[in-house]
From TrEMBL:
<dbReference type="InterPro" id="IPR012505">
    <property type="entry name" value="YbbR"/>
</dbReference>
<dbReference type="Pfam" id="PF07949">
    <property type="entry name" value="YbbR"/>
</dbReference>
<dbReference type="InterPro" id="IPR053154">
    <property type="entry name" value="c-di-AMP_regulator"/>
</dbReference>
<protein>
    <recommendedName>
        <fullName>YbbR-like domain-containing protein</fullName>
    </recommendedName>
</protein>
<feature type="region of interest" description="Disordered">
    <location>
        <begin position="416"/>
        <end position="495"/>
    </location>
</feature>
Amino acid sequence: MDKWLTHPTALKIISVILGVLLFAVVHIDPETAPQVATTSIETKVIEAATIQTTGLDEEKYVLTAMEPTVARIVVEGGISSLYAASPEDYVVSVDLSRAKPGLQELPLTLKLPKGIKEVNLEPRKVTVQIEEIVKKTFDAQVITEGDPAEGHVVGTPEILSENGGVVQVTLPKEDMDKVGLVAVHIDVAGADKTVTNKKAKVIVYDTDGQEMPNAIVEPSTLHVEVKVTLPFKQVPLQIRYTGTLSEDLSLVSVKPDVDQVTVYAPQNELDTISVYDGAVLDLSKVKQSGVMKVKATPVDGIQDVNPGEIELEIVVESTATRTMSNVPISIVGGAENVTAQLVTPASGTIDLTINGAQSVLDEVTIADLAVIANIAGLGPGSHEVPLELELPPYVQPVLTDGQALTATVTITAGTAQSGEDAGADQEVGVTPTSPPGDTGSEGEGQEAANDRNEGDGTTGADASGSGNGNAVTDETGLGEKQLAAQWEIKNATLT
């Protein structure tokens, strides 16, 4: 050993080793040496990572509360890995697949990007509140907001969606008991025509009127319409006629599919409207029994009509004739202090031939006919007075050549009578001279005429009657009853 240490070559080797060691001791900084060894690893802190939920059966349950909702994560890894990872790559979650209704504490799990490991997760558990959910069907209501334009009114809102206003609301069981109203809102402020909202949002309110934002509604929007119109009201429908039927046809009945219509008009016009007669049937187009449609046209200040079209069920039959014997003549319109005497015809009656559908004529009786001599405005003396006819609907008179509807009446001035007697004088002067066998029918007709014409102040220069409409063009726009009451028979003389 001593020889080896004293050997010149060995001493040279030892000297070199010692020199290298001394160089290292002098030139290496002890404070920087650790940094060279750890430069590839770094630590990162994520202060508020959102806690996600997984596995919840959303058909049965709803998460109503979770505390806390964020977690603090400390991780470490290579610099390149830390910088390459985004915040979304750090996933903190809680598994709710086994959760049950109620308050409970569940563990958190952490999923990290590749090359990064967990140093710390805080907290390790969260408290969650799970509630059972229920679904219930409601009928949504429409709430209008604002006032329409001046002079207009808001109609009943209508939901036009496929299932109407039926919606399904999903809420926790406890919250469902608090639902007070399901509604959509539509603004009609300043509107002068119908307002339509195709996507009105459905809102659920509790019993205190507060919105329940956690409610899930299906469908979430509805198609809503609110009519904004002029004032309106319902009035009876009266059909008018124009044109004529062919001579071989007569009306049996005309029945509209509605009895009333809704008319829209400014309020001052609406107050004066008591009947709607803007639907006109052109009789010249009626060739057989069946259904026809006529337009409901706005008239007399009316701006709109609903429905806008009327369906008429029309029945016609072949024309037939019938003679009604000994129809009594009634005198009306006389003053209280005069006496009126019927001179001709002396019998106080006339024979009247009428035509119409056979089924209609079969129902006509003497009581349904009225022959009236109106002496209103006539002074004392002898007067030839035109006779007015009042006949049932769809019946008309048939006058032979030379036949006229007039009567001669003598008016005599008299003393004022009591109210009871004066009333009787309205039909005085009828001197029945017909055979005793005809007295019953004449009396029956006279009484019916009295009933129909009591207090009637109608005047007219022409004899008039009523009929089935197959020989009259209603140019005055009269309705069915007026048409029957004002059938004019002109240029006739009594034989």
